[in-house]
Design brief:
This protein is mainly beta. The protein is about 0% helix and about 35% strand. The protein contains two helices and 33 strands. A hairpin with a 5-residue loop joins β16 and β17. The longest helix has 6 residues.
Length: about 450
């Protein structure tokens, strides 16, 4: 979820995913499926909204590349030159920044370090990496109980500047960092406003901003979400809770923060860098009832793309051409045959060219056991990593391509995978990013490894 400037108009011809020990790619070629290699996910399915399968002369082909590192809550960013940066938590004290300069073929550790050689970020409760498209600056931020450790690099991770006091507010969770053009403030030494938002454990979602590229931080003002009841009226407390998704900034400096709220998909909109917010409900077919993330992306023309899972566990998409004031009717855009999804996350390249990464299963018992589903109901249920993409998301009836990033006989997860257990150990989110050449890459977690393959 990134601020978008003008991209090359090349059609996104590759679908990519990064698993906990794997990165995967979907590309139009004839590569034979091989576990852990190009072609491992197989050909994607061409379809319209609602799962209507159509015939296509060409379809992307899933690819997977292992990054050989443990992972919880992975994120990634891609530079203009195509270098891929990836981070995820292996444990509270185990977190690395990895870099690939050969399209996922090999990975090297480029973690921020002190002059002593020790890591600048010795702990993480939430890892996060972000590459600012306009400037190429790489931001690596790790949440701690009292604050956040932030490092940034302007030379592809060769050297880092570290700031151990990039605080939003002590004791916060589920942070997101992003940047974009200023709306009301002059910046200093860095051309963009850097935004940092977090969840206040039941008290809402708040943000801070930096006008000097991440060195100093100030509160933006009122919380993005502090108490919006189901009918839209303001209250004094966060009456519904729910995690926000990752934020984005439009070409005019407008800040957008998505959130599942009171069982519905909402978005917070600020035209003054977070000083004040307007909150809009984007659809009314309800989100996943236990607090799923929602996700938003914005293109260079200011068009918005918002994805979420509904109460029936399917993947939905809405779009807006007027800055979030009005939204299209929801479209069910999940891969045909997928009966349940989790972790939807979206990115956009050129206008209309989007990619959505998510976990999904074709074996869901949900329709039969809801609302009393148990772990036993999900015993043996296999989950795959999916990416759905289209080059004309703003059209009336877009053509989508959806495919798995892993071979289906080697699932990423087996069992119950929802927000009752955070798909332990995946926890809160995965990620997706479209590279400058139009290639979508995603970050997934594969906690099963050989055990899931053997159970195939």
């Amino acid at each position: 979820m990134r601020t978008r400037t003008t991209r090359r108009s090349k059609v996104a011809a590759a679908l990519v995913a990064l698993a906990a020990v794997a990165a995967t790619q979907l590309a139009v070629d004839a590569a034979a499926p091989q576990d852990g290699q190009k072609g491992s996910g197989g050909r994607a399915v061409a379809h319209r909204a609602g799962g209507r399968v159509v015939t296509a002369s060409k379809a992307p082909d899933g690819r997977i590349y292992r990054v050989a590192d443990a992972a919880i809550e992975p994120t990634l960013g891609i530079t203009k030159e195509g270098a891929i940066f990836y981070t995820a938590a292996a444990s509270v004290t185990g977190v690395d920044v990895l870099r690939s300069t050969d399209d996922g073929g090999t990975w090297e550790n480029t973690s921020p370090r002190l002059p002593t050689g020790d890591k600048s970020h010795p702990i993480t409760l939430d890892p996060y990496i972000y590459v600012a498209e306009a400037t190429g600056r790489i931001f690596n931020i790790d949440l701690t109980v009292a604050c956040s450790n932030l490092s940034f690099s302007d030379d592809d991770g060769e050297t880092w500047t570290s700031n151990p006091l990039a605080c939003g507010r002590p004791v916060n969770d589920h942070q997101t960092l992003f940047s974009g053009p200023p709306a009301i403030s002059p910046t200093v030494t860095y051309p963009e406003v850097v935004d940092y938002c977090w969840n206040d454990f039941g008290a809402g979602s708040s943000c801070s901003k930096s006008l000097d590229g991440g060195i100093t931080w100030v509160s933006t003002g009122s919380p993005a979400f502090s108490g919006v009841a189901a009918g839209g009226e303001e209250t004094g407390a966060d009456v519904c809770g729910g995690f926000h998704g990752h934020g984005v900034v439009g070409p005019d400096g407008t800040v957008y923060l998505p959130k599942e709220y009171c069982g519905q998909p909402w978005i917070g909109i600020s035209k003054d860098e977070g000083a004040t917010w307007t909150r809009v409900q984007v659809a009314n077919n309800t989100t996943e009832r236990l607090g799923s993330d929602t996700s938003v992306a914005v293109d260079a023309k200011g068009n918005l793309y918002y994805t979420y899972e509904s109460a029936d566990q399917r993947l939905w998409l809405v779009t807006s051409k007027d800055g979030g004031e009005h939204w299209t009717n929801p479209k069910m855009v999940g891969s045909p045959g997928v009966e349940e999804v989790i972790y939807p996350t979206i990115d956009v390249g050129d206008p209309g060219k989007i990619a959505i990464a998510y976990m999904g299963t074709e074996e869901s018992p949900f329709a039969k056991c809801d609302p009393d589903c148990t772990n036993d109901d999900y015993a043996g249920v296999r989950w795959n990593g999916y990416i759905t993409m289209t080059t004309n998301a703003l059209a009336k009836d877009p053509l989508f391509y959806s495919g798995t990033v892993n071979a289906k006989n080697d699932p990423l997860y087996i069992g119950r995978c929802d927000f009752s257990n955070r798909c332990d150990p995946i926890l809160d989110f995965i990620d997706v990013e479209i590279a400058p050449d139009g290639t979508p890459w995603g970050a997934f977690v594969d906690p099963c490894g050989e055990a899931c393959k053997a159970s195939g």
